[in-house]
Amino acid sequence: MASPLTTLPRPTFAAPGAGSAGSPLREHYDAVRRQTEHLCAPLQTEDYVVSSMPDVSPTKWHLAHTSWFFETFVLATHDASYRSPDERYAFLFNSYYVQAGERHCRAQRGLVTRPTVEQVFAYRAHVDAAMRRLIDRVGDDRAHPAHPLITLGLHHEQQHQELLLQDIKHVFWTNPMRPTYRERTPTPQRVTESRWHAVEEGVHRIGTDGEGFAYDNEGPSHRVFVEPFRLATRLVTNGEYLAFMEDGGYQHPELWLSAGLATVQEHGWASPMYWERTDEGWTEFTLAGTAPVDLSAPVCHVSYYEADAYARWAGHRLPTEAEWEVAARGVRIEGPFVEAERYHPSPASVSAEGLSQLYGDVWQWTSSAYVAYPGFVAAPGAIGEYNGKWMADQWVLRGASCATPRSHARLTYRNFFPSDARWQFGGIRLASGA
Asked: Where are the domains of the chain?
């Protein structure tokens, strides 16, 4: 009989580009599910189970929760024969869907050693088998009621792919050994000049127009009036943010919102998250390990409070989300997304013209509170809790980051986080009056 401590076989990870037969929906499903497991390939079993702060979920939980989503919102309704491998998983892997049942405490997810990592991968395989049978029946019939739920589940999983990376980064940072997730070759460049992209005043339509996938909070499409404004053609760099720090930016109360200053003083903030001062200068922890701060790269892992204070110090402001979308309309959605496997923002290209770094580096804080668009109505049932219930005490970020999947990025995307959140890939783009 094998010892209970015997090391179990680890799952095999297919490359995200590996093909699969079937309909476009089946191919999309298989690609997204493979990519999640591909992101786990550098991890050891011990890495999967850690929660380093209440906002950070263990990798194992992300793998299970994204499967629970398909189980709960797709299979439970559209496959009468489906049975969960363990009914207790519904309690463990629900996140915040109150109408879907009781939930395990978020801050205690790192205490759940069972099910094991191997059992979670078996759970994923169980759900995948049922989902593939269902998708084969649905085909590409967009009128089938399961089709939009499956598509939503895939974008939900892509969200969790980004969360998985930002969470494991925090887990590795809290480890004194500061392990490396994946090696990469730094590409420092000279800092390109930041210019202004001017937009005239006028009435514009923002929000989703119904073409392609979008979350419910991206609509309805509606008209907004914007005064003339200018948007910086690139992101704020580490070097520029360092100048703010060296000028005593964290110590000047006139630069900070009251709650921001209180947060800075309570937590002792004096730099972006993951920066550390050494005898040789500032270093930054990345998913490729610790390295000297690249002064030409975009500043990352700053809160709304820090972004707002920096903008005030620079004599400018953060854009509204309407300004960001109006200025970005017509710009190609391109950048070093997660598929580039850099997992860190890149310096602006010297040859870039017009607006650059809108996507694929950092999410960009706006000065817009996360509230409902005019006419917004949440979907009925538990699925309606996805976005609508968070429309208070949050700020909108626009764009996409180096951890965002390319097919998940879009012009109208409304990301949102609380004012003091820093562990996500958030950065700064300045705006100004005309």
From this structure: 24-174, 196-433
In one-letter notation, the amino acid at residue 91 is F
Q: Can you name the residues that pair with 365 across neighbouring β-strands?
A: 397
Strand locations in 287-375 (E): 289-292, 363-369
Give the per-residue pLDDT at 1. 29
Contacts of range 258-262, beta carbons closer than 8 Å, 24 or more positions apart: 259/305, 259/419, 260/303, 260/304, 260/305, 260/306, 260/308, 260/309, 260/419
Q: Which residues contact 185 (CB under 8 A, 6 or more apart)?
A: none
Token pair, residue 207, equals: 């929000």
Residues 6 or more apart in contact with residue 280 via CB below 8 angstroms: 292
Rounded distance, CA 326 to CA 275, Å? 33
Please name the CATH architecture into which domain 196-433 falls: Alpha-Beta Complex (3.90)
- 314 vs 220: CA distance, rounded Å: 35
- Strands (E) across 240-335 are located at 275-278, 281-286, 289-292
Q: How many CB atoms lie within 10 A of CB 379?
A: 14
Higher pLDDT, 327 or 10: 327
Longest C-alpha distance within the chain, in Å? 76
Q: What burial letters (b/e) apply to 145-184, b meaning 16+ CB within 10 Å?
A: ebbebbebbbbbbbbbbbbbbbbbbbbbbeeeeebebeeb
The CA distances from residue 128 to 60, 330, 426, in Å, are 16, 37, 33
At residue 187 the predicted structure's pLDDT band, cuts being 50, 70 and 90, is low
Rounded Cα distance, 121 and 108, in Å: 21
Dump pLDDT digits (tens) for 383-411.
Answer: 999 999 999 999 999 999 999 999 999 99
Reduce the DSSP state of residue 427 to 3 states and report it. Answer: strand
According to DSSP, the β-strands at 426-427 and 363-369 are parallel
What gap in Å lies between CA 317 and CA 225, rounded to an integer?
18
How far apart are the C-alpha atoms of 154 and 24, rounded to whole Å?
13
Question: Among residues 431, 325, 385, 417, which one has the least CA distance to residue 72?
Answer: 385
Is the pTM higher than 0.85? The answer reads yes
